[in-house]
Structure formats: C-alpha cells, structure tokens
Amino acid sequence: MIAKSKIFPQHDRTKTANQLREGIEYYNPDFRQLLPEEPELIHHWRGTEWAEGPVFLSQRNAVIWSDIPNNRMLEFNLTSRETSVFKEPSNYTNGNTVDLEGRLISAQHLPHCILRTEHDGTLTVLVDRYNGKRLNSPNDVVVKSDGTIWFTDPPYGILSDREGRQRKSEISGCYVYRFDEVTGTLEIVVDSMDRPNGLAFSPGEDILYVSDTGKSENLMAFNVSSDGRYVENGREFAKVRPGTSDGFRCDVEGNLWTSAADGIQCYTAEGELIGKILIPEQRVANCCFGGPDAKTLYIAGDTSLYSIVLDIAGAQSGT
C-alpha cells in the first residue's frame, strides 16, 4: 500500500513575469498566444534534492513527483494545496506516467523495473529484464494509446549509490524499449543513443521524441511506423542550451515544452525555439500538464515544484 506521512507546510508564492529571475522570454510572437496576458509562476513547495518525474493523477486531483536522492515521492494536492509524502522509500523512482486506466506507471532505479501501482495500492512489476538480463535503471516512461509502454534505460541508477545502487551493467548498452503487456514482449526500438533519457509522443503519435543526456546532448525525433511498433528516421530535433533537455511534454498543437538549465523552453513541431519560462533554480529536470483542463504546466526544479497556467492544453495530461 502507499505509505503517507506528515503534511509539509505550504510555500505558495506567486510571481508575475516581472518578478521572475529573468521573466518570460519571447523569441516568436506565437509564444504569446500560448500564455495568458499576465503569466504567473507559482512556487508550491521547496525541499527536494533532485526533483523529477511529475505526473497528474486525476483521481487524486494531485501531482506526484520524485525526489530521487532522498528515495521518496511527494504529492501536491490541488484542492488543499498541501504537500505530503506519497511513498517512502520509493526504490529511487524517477519518471512517472499513467496508463489508459489511470494507474500510476513508474520507472524505478531499484529494482531496475517498470512498476504499476494498482487502484487498490498494490504493486505490479511489469518488466525488469531484457533477454534474461537486468535492465540498467529505467528513467522515463510514456504510455501509447494502444496501451504499450515505452521507456528509456540509461545507467544513472547504477553509477553510484546516490540514485540507486552501484553495479555493473548486464546489458551491452542504453536503449529505448517498447513493452507490450498483452504479449509479454519487450523490444528495443532505439539503439543509437548514448544515454536516452526523457521521451514523449507527438499528439498524433507519429513522432517519438527522445533526449540524449550523454555525449551528443541532442533532443532527437523519430518517425513512428504505421503499425506503431518501431521507429525510424532518427534526426536531431533541437540542441537545448544552456544545459540539455531532460524531460518534456507536448501540447495539443504539437509544441514541445522541455526542461533546460534555465527553466522551460518551448519549441514548435518544426524545432523552432519560440520562448522560455525561466525558473529560479540551478536546473529543471521535468514537467507535466495537469489540472481539470490540462492547461497547467507543473515544473520540477532542483529543489521545488512550480506551476504556470497556459492558454493551451497538454496532448496527454497525465504524461
């Protein structure tokens, strides 16, 4: 069952664009159409060491996110505006999403698996091995409309004990996988990246975006095959600077909202940077759309959870 702990004090602080570290940067007039006239960045809670994997759970009206080094997950309730421990220990959970039934799907560094939390709180390990060998440390995860689960498997959870447990990799590389629970098959769909990290589908699911936080530091785009089982034509979509792209989400028009060292950057489907939401943190790791209309972007910075209301909805509000 999910263990809940003390409720933390609230730290709501609303900042207008003029009060942000640098404000909101507009590189193209189209970016103004995606934001309200007076955007407000809201700081909800501070206290994480390395925040990751936010996801909106509609049945709880809450945002769940990971604090990887502290081996816990936190919950921000949109109704009470209180933050509490959602799960501790969390097996160094990193990325989170929801499946077609609204169940929480988590990428866990320990025990190197994709985990499903059932509606009654029981836990189901969906996959933890490829050809009999342990996965590295699943990092981020997304569920396609056909129910298959796609996830990345870089080595960050096995490089040291800070985000998991140090050990040697049993697999020859770091891959993007597709898991079909109906058939029980786990297939490699991308084998050309150094350290695949964040991933998301375009609104029509004809493009898969994957960030590489390894040598290339590219945000890549791949065409998804007509049967939805594999990808092809991998190419550089964007080179995010400063820092690199980690986690990201798409809105209903196909714009991509990605984390960066300076906050959130927004790119069109053609790869044009049109604007930034600058966050007063050392870096930002991930984001998700949430709320009843999926028009609120929740942002996981180093130490804190933030949100900003947009004038556009997320393509997949739970992912």
**What does the overall shape look like?**
globular
CATH architecture: 6 Propeller
Structural class: mainly beta
Helical percentage = under 10%
Number of H- or I-type helical stretches: 0
**Major sheet size, sense and barrel closure:** 5 strands, antiparallel
In the sheet with the most strands, the strands line up as 1-8-7-6-5
The averaged pLDDT comes out at: 93
Question: What is CATH's topology name?
Answer: Neuraminidase
User: Which CATH C-level class is it?
Assistant: Mainly Beta
Number of domains: 1
- Compute the separation of the termini in Å: 23 Å
Find the count of extended strands (DSSP E, 2+ residues): 29
Helix-strand string: EEEEEEEEEEEEEEEEEEEEEEEEEEEEE
Give unreliable regions as ranges. 1-22
Protein model, in words:
This protein has no helices and 29 strands. Strands 1-8-7-6-5 form a 5-stranded antiparallel beta sheet, with no helix packed on it. A 5-stranded antiparallel beta sheet has the order 2-4-29-28-27, with no helix packed on it. A 5-stranded antiparallel beta sheet has the order 3-26-25-24-23, with no helix packed on it. The chain has one domain: TolB, C-terminal domain (Neuraminidase). Helix content is 0%, strand content 46%. The two termini are 23 Å apart. It has 319 residues and is mainly beta. A hairpin with a 2-residue loop joins strand 13 (129-130) and strand 14 (133-134). Its cofactor is Zn(2+). Its EC number is 3.1.1.17. The active site is at 246 (proton donor/acceptor).
